Amino acid sequence: MHKGWAGKLFTKISGSSDDASDLSDVAHKAEAPNALRHIASLSMTKVADGLIDPKLMLSWLLTALGAPAVFAGALVPIRESGALLPQMILASWVQGMERRKWAWVMGSAGQGLFAALIVLAALTLDGAAAGYAICAALAGLALSRAACSVSYKDILGKTVGQSRRGAITGTAGSVASAGVVVLALLLMSGLFENKGVVVAAIALAACLWGGAALLFAALREEKSDTGNATKASFGILKEDANLRRFILVRGLLTSTALAPPYFVVLAGGEDQSALGQLGALVLASALASFLSSYVWGRMSDRSSRKVLMLTGIVGAVAMLGAVALSVLGLATQFWAMPLVLFILMIAYHGVRQGRSIYLVDMSPEDQRSAYAAVSNTVIGLLLLVAGFAGGGAALLGPTATLVLFALMALGAAIAGIGLREVEAVD
Question: What is the per-residue burial (b if ≥16 Cβ within 10 Å, else e) of 152-180?
Answer without folding.
Answer: bbbbbbbbbbbbbbbbbbbbbbbbbbebb
